[in-house]
Amino acid sequence: MRKRSKWKFVPPEFEESTQIICNPGRGWYEIYTFCIGQGCREEELERVREVCDGPDTLALLLICLEHAGDGLTQKQLDSADRILHAFAGKRDILLRFVYDLAGKGMEQEPGQFSQVERHLEQLAPLLRKYAPYLYVYQGMLVGSWGEMHTSRYLSGKYVKKLGRKLADISGGQFFLAVRKPSQWRQIFSSEDVEMAVKRAKIGLFNDGILGSDTDLGTYGTSARDTAGWEAAWLPEEELWFQERLCQYVPNGGEAVYGQYTARQPLEGIVERLRSMHIGYLNRCHDKRVLEYWKTLKWEEEGVWKGMNGLDYIGCHLGYRFFVEYADMQWEPRSEYAVLYVDIKNVGFSNMYESAQLFVEHEELEGQCHRDMVSCDVKGWGSGGTVRISHRVPLREGNFYLSLRRAKDQRSILFANGGHGMERVLLGRLHRL
Hints:
Blueprint: E1 7-10, E2 27-29, E3 31-35, H1 42-51, E4 58-64, H2 74-87, E5 92-98, H3 105-108, H4 113-129, E6 134-138, H5 156-170, E7 175-178, H6 181-187, H7 193-199, E8 202-209, H8 224-227, H9 235-245, E9 251-255, H10 259-262, H11 266-276, E10 280-282, H12 287-295, H13 309-316, E11 321-330, E12 336-345, E13 355-363, E14 368-373, E15 385-393, E16 397-405, E17 423-431
Parallel strand pairs: 2-10, 3-4, 4-5, 5-6, 6-7, 7-8, 8-9, 9-10
Antiparallel strand pairs: 1-17, 11-12, 12-15, 13-14, 13-16, 16-17
């Protein structure tokens, strides 16, 4: 009888990085504003080449449809095309077409709702053309700064029509976002909420985060049972709603300084951002709240102890995957083993886009084999740990784990070592 070889698998010490990791679909962003009423000047696009060399992976494009009239001109559409082309592939785009940039939404928006619908129809080919590069399309054109307030077109019937028209335009290729949870509920009835939460790809954007206990009117002052499905609820009820909704769709926006903000300790701020599953925040507005966060310190024991609040929050925006454990178990009477890996998501949110996970095996002779692991990365919930398993041959060498976004094969970095790792060493297998 042939004597079976004995094997030993030696994992490394897994250490979590405390550096900001530049992964797609999460993090800080800045706003880039363009007005296309008279076309787009070349110098406006020239600065795109400069800003896209920075550390951010996201950019919010605010494109104002000046003098839209009954219909957008070809010159306006061509200008919007050039703007989107300049950012495509350089940033994941957060996009908002708007009528107003001065807080005068009702004055600037069209006089007839049919004109708003017409403008969306004209923009549809552009949205579909750049769908691979869009992460979230925010708003529905209307309201001051496109923020879905101060508009004559924000009653339930209008929001429902615009939401469904945009959903048809997107075809599920990118996420949509409305300003308030109550506006999300105006689109979907309470009867189809379970289906909508998981399939509709409509999330939230909040430009009043922590500005007050209601996030500057994002939430209401009446309980759900009194207010009804389509109205704004008490903050604690809306946070409960968001915690469930935003397991499946993105949420982000702007933090605002106010008396409510100044009363909050870092632990309370983090708890709120985590419950909202905040994935992205504006790095320029409001500077007062960002400076306040710098004065706070994370006090819990562990690798983050002593870090200032701004850096702590920046590191945890969106998803953040950390490989914390790996081991191997031999199959009886077989030349194979099962590799087990524990991955923790320490970020505020899930990863919402499809991704592919790979186990890589580098043999001593230099051959490299890569196998895809069957798993749903979008289900790696914030604060949770998942265990993945994969059957591997008993051959000496190093085993690694890597992750790539499905749509463009961009590497998703793990929070193991330095500024993140494109692949994590799981361990070395050798024969005794």
